[in-house]
Every structure is written in C-alpha cells, then in structure tokens.
Amino acid sequence: MWSTSKRTSAGAEVVVLYPLAGPSSSRDERRPGRVQVFKQVLTHREPKLVTHSGHEWLYVLVGELRLVLGTNDTALRPGGVAEFGTSTPHWFGPAHAEAVQILHLFRPHGDQPVNRTSPCAPGVTGTPAGRFEPES
C-alpha cells in the first residue's frame, strides 16, 4: 500500500490508501500480534471475497459502507459498527458510487475487540460505553 494525504476545503487532512501492484499487504508485518488501526477512504471497486487469519472491526465515519460476509450483504451508515473473524469470506467498500470513510481496526491471530453498547453495571470494572477494549 502507498498513501497520499489531501486537505479538504474545511482544512481537514484525509489520507487515501492505494494498493500496490502485485502481491502485497496493507497489514504491518513488522509488528505481528498488535492491533493495527487505519482511517480509510474507500472508492468504488468490484467485490472480491477474501479470507485470512485475524479479526476486524469497522466503524463508518462518512458515507455508506457495503459489507459482504459470506452470503450476507448489508450496508452500514455513519456510526454503524461491524466486527467479524476474518476466516469468514468477506469484502467491504462503498455501497454506492461515492467514497466511504471508515475507521478500520485489524488484529491478527483471531483476537477480537469488545464493543460496549452501554455502561458497565455498578461494581463491574471495564471501559465506558463506546470505547474500544481488546480482550486479553
């Protein structure tokens, strides 16, 4: 992968990732076992299901994300979250012609994040609602 950064008219920096020709990986092979985080701007491409070891967590920032998991095909809007084991055939990209911006977390070896939807009960320790916490 290679990237370039651009500034929007509002002055926000946007990083756009592009695949390299030939066999490559967007995963950081130098730090196996660590959570890798990407803010991605995905443009239209044809769906191609893939599998690999690990676990992915996606959060839609802007636009609409199409997510294909096995035989399930769904769309997520801003604020939508998906998490899945990557041994399931999967693909994700824009649901329409417009680009989609996502926050993408990847953890190799099947470790998975915890997605909390409500605060912990009194006396129970953990992170506040909505925060990412990898399991030990």
From TrEMBL:
Domain of life: Bacteria
Pfam family, one: Cupin_2
Region (Disordered): 113-136
Name the UniProt record assigns to this protein: Cupin domain-containing protein
Ranges for domain Cupin type-2: 49-105
